[in-house]
């Protein structure tokens, strides 16, 4: 059963189970994680925010915009504290919209009545995206492609629901109304809906969940025989092959259409966790899942990766390490061999820790989720991320697991992994980096560099801080001080309020573009003098983009550091106050008599 599982990782896995089952002392566990090996610098850490049936957000139907905005901010704030850097927000749960659309009706899970607009004509989607970006999170717009209703009652559908104009597009199955994937008009409509969002909103990715053809229901038949007869240009003889091709055509065409609309928008899918069992297909995993996606949902996720039609995959591996039919380590190892150089993020079932399940009791162990993430990391970047279902279950802190992530595995920030097949050109370095030290405040100012050869400019920055005799390299996320995201086109300012008086530091600043390519660093040094210091930044010797090992500067490696408290950035002229943090006044004690200066000169230290 474990023939294809790498021996070293299997031993690691067995040791982890034995160690946790023996209840290792807290101090021993801390020591084990306090090695000189840095955590991954690039790792996607996401959470699904489900809107269907108000699972995660909004808290209830029909809330005023002020309330659902407040609740969303709280959700993101909690996710930020847990280390999340990407959100997957369900904006089309059932052929409806959490945004202003001329193609489909407003969602009843937002306003209480399908087709009814929010109070004041509010369009929530720009707000949802902006708030995620403010917190350094990617925004993945989550669409359910084929589900039209959660029941089969049509009398409550809004007048502009597609069913009203095109009832022939839909089939009833499993107590729901579903689009017929075999109809070219259906595929065209789904593509039109998604591209409308891609073109009009500043999303980072288009995301699908696991619902393609419906999960089989006992004693029920999905009656698409007429479409099989009338829309089968390739003359498939088997219904299953035709159905898989219908989904493949949608995925392929949508991928190309997204690229043409906006080259930086990613396309990712979260399928059921088992593609095929090995007993039915030699390429499958050594599992015994009841409804593999290839055969039961007609979703050939392995082919999409092999053809490069999707940029990332998030298989839903909601089983524990000890689940007999589908063990987590076996399935993880299979996916690491079958993602074809596209990004593999793992979908974790954090909701399982809130269940009283008898079939998978390992989820009652608080060490199970951290164990899974450590196993992901043991694959040397083959599984560079995790997404948790769902937001409320993660933030409920089941079994104190979220505390464990925040204090240990997600203690340090991580950048979303770059995708070189989409963009491998880093932005140019920052310009005019300066440092000013007044007493124990260290203020850094810089300006965005010019556009890179591909036209990209910086989207955000990474600020590193190093102490004396500490190896200065941008490869270690433990030295990341902040990830500032100033308004486009405006100078950036960061005030390090945690700098120890008399301590010398070196600061690195790098620019990062929309797809997380990182520029070569610019360096500036403070000698720790008590009087005013002013320094100009420069490129470290031998510095290159992402992965350089530049020069060293003067102290104690691994020393604990107070955390900075203030990041400043101005609002752009076309940006709402919600889009960026407000001005913050900083009191600075200066020993030399300052000249008379205006407000902005005091703020930026120029």
UniProtKB/TrEMBL annotation:
Molecular function as annotated in GO: hydrolase activity
Limits of the Fibronectin type-III domain: 426-532
Entry annotated with the keyword Repeat: no
Composition-biased stretches (Polar residues): 573-583
Region (Disordered), start-end ranges: 540-586
Signal peptide span: 1-28
PANTHER family: GLYCOSYL HYDROLASE DIGH
Protein name: Glycoside hydrolase
């Amino acid at each position: 059963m474990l023939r294809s599982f790498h021996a070293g990782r299997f031993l690691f896995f067995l040791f982890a189970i034995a160690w946790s089952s023996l209840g290792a002392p807290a101090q021993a566990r801390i020591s084990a994680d306090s090695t000189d090996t840095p955590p991954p610098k690039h790792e996607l850490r996401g959470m699904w925010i489900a809107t269907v049936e108000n699972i995660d957000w909004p808290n209830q139907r029909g809330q005023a915009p002020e309330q659902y905005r407040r609740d969303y901010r709280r959700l993101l704030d909690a996710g930020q504290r847990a280390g999340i850097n990407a959100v997957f927000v369900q904006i089309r749960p059932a052929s409806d919209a959490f945004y202003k659309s001329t193609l489909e009706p407003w969602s009843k899970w937002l306003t209480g009545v399908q087709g009814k607009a929010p109070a004041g004509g509010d369009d929530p989607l720009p707000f949802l995206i902006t708030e995620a970006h403010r917190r350094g999170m990617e925004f993945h717009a989550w669409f359910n492609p084929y589900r039209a209703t959660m029941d089969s009652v049509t009398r409550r559908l809004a007048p502009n629901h597609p069913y009203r104009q095109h009832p022939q597009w839909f089939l009833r199955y499993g107590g729901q109304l579903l689009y017929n994937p075999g109809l070219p008009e259906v595929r065209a409509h789904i593509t039109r809906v998604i591209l409308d969002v891609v073109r009009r909103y500043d999303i980072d990715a288009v995301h699908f969940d696991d619902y393609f053809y419906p999960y089989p229901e006992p004693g029920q038949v999905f009656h698409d025989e007429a479409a099989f007869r009338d829309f089968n240009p390739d003359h498939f003889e088997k219904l299953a092959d035709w159905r898989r091709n219908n989904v493949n055509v949608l995925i392929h065409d949508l991928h190309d259409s997204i690229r043409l609309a906006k080259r930086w928008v990613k396309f990712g899918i979260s399928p059921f966790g088992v593609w095929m069992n090995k007993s039915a297909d030699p390429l499958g995993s050594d599992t015994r899942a009841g409804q593999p996606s290839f055969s039961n949902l007609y979703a050939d996720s392995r082919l999409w990766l092999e053809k490069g039609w999707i940029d990332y995959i998030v298989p839903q591996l909601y089983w524990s390490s000890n689940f007999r039919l589908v063990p987590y380590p076996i399935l993880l190892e299979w996916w690491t061999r079958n993602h074809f150089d596209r990004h593999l993020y793992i979908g974790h079932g954090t909701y399982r820790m809130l269940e009283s399940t008898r079939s998978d009791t390992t989820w009652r162990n608080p060490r199970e989720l951290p164990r899974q993430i450590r196993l992901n990391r043991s694959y040397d970047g083959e599984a560079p991320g995790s997404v948790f279902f769902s937001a409320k279950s993660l933030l409920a802190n089941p079994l104190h697991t979220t505390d464990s992530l925040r204090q240990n595995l997600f203690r340090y920030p991580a950048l979303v992994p770059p995708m070189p097949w989409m963009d491998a050109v880093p932005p140019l370095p920052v310009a005019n980096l300066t440092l000013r030290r007044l007493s124990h405040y260290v203020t850094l100012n810089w300006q965005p560099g010019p556009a890179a050869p591909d036209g990209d400019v910086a989207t955000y920055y990474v600020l590193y801080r190093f102490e004396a005799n500490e190896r200065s390299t941008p490869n270690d996320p433990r030295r990341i001080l902040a990830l500032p995201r100033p308004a486009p086109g405006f100078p950036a300012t960061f005030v390090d309020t945690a700098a120890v008086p008399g301590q010398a530091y070196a600061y690195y600043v790098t620019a990062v573009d929309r797809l997380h390519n990182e520029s070569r660093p610019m360096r500036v040094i403070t000698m720790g003098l008590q009087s005013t210091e002013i320094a100009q930044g420069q490129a470290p010797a031998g510095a290159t983009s992402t992965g350089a090992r530049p020069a060293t500067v003067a102290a104690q490696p691994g020393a604990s550091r107070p955390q900075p408290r203030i990041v400043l950035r101005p609002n752009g002229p076309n940006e709402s106050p919600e889009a960026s943090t407000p001005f913050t006044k900083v009191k600075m004690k200066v020993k030399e008599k300052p000249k008379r200066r205006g407000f902005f000169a005091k703020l930026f230290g120029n």
